[in-house]
Design brief:
This protein is mainly alpha-helical. It is about 70% helix and about 0% strand. It contains 11 helices and no strands.
């Protein structure tokens, strides 16, 4: 048995020596040549000389900035156009409270969903606030539709009086103007982050800004009918959402 194994062991040993010799020769040939005289040695720490600490992005910071801009827009509307009498008397109408509450809920849900995309969540569930924002946004037109279906038949003149196009067009214009400033603050804050879905984020920014902008205008708006609120305020929010989807994605890409 040993007689047959001895030649195989000798052959394996010769192969091992050949491999070692080849590797040693390659390592000798590939040695780095010494640096020329006067050359400065490479210092890895130089690569970190220009690095500055980065402040982490926090969702509450973005929400606070958005809320601050919404308050500024509300104050601007109040100073430029005035305030509803019931609001000034600190006894707001019930429909005003419902309208303001619905708009604020839509705005907060959409803002949370939009600003959360600045810091992608790896290994954690993605927030579903955007679904709540869409569900809440559907409440206003749904309320207007139910009001129309349950009301007795109206002629065109009475329906026009309820819709009040003069104030309705003003609602669209002022709400969009307020939404512009609010959306600008949100976009500037989001550009510091890394939104992974610019298109969906743009939708949500427009939705949030439109809701907050409409809420700012509502402190002046004298209308209290559900048909008016569900029609014009829904149009204002939808118009801002569509405009956000068209305009904002290139500004959010990184």
């Amino acid at each position: 048995m040993y007689k047959y194994a001895r030649p195989q062991l000798a052959s394996a040993w010769r192969y091992h020596n050949n491999v070692v010799n080849v590797l040693s020769k390659n390592m000798t040939d590939n040695q780095v040549s010494p640096a020329p005289s006067g050359a400065r040695p490479f210092d890895v720490s130089v690569l970190a000389d220009d690095i500055a600490p980065v402040t982490p992005m926090r969702l509450r910071t973005g929400l606070m900035l958005t809320a601050l801009m919404s308050i500024i827009a509300t104050v601007a509307v109040a100073l430029a156009m005035g305030v509803r009498e019931d609001v000034a008397a600190l006894s707001p109408d019930r429909m005003f409270m419902i309208r303001a509450g619905a708009l604020l809920m839509i705005g907060v849900a959409a803002a949370v969903a939009a600003l959360s995309t600045a810091t992608p969540r790896i290994g954690r569930p993605t927030p579903k606030a955007w679904k709540w924002a869409l569900m809440l946004a559907g409440l206003l037109p749904l309320g207007a539709l139910i009001s129309l279906l349950n009301a007795p038949s109206h002629d065109a003149q009475s329906l026009q009086a309820k819709l009040d196009p003069q104030y309705g067009l003003e609602c669209l214009r002022i709400s969009a103007l307020c939404a512009l400033g609010i959306a600008a603050v949100m976009v500037l804050w989001l550009r510091r982050g890394a939104p992974t879905s610019p298109e969906r984020t743009a939708w949500l920014i427009g939705l949030a800004a439109g809701a907050f902008g409409a809420s700012a205008y509502s402190v002046y708006c004298p209308a209290t009918t559900l048909v008016y609120i569900g029609t014009w305020y829904s149009l204002a929010v939808a118009m801002c959402a569509v405009a956000g989807r068209i305009i904002l994605p290139p500004l959010l890409r990184w």
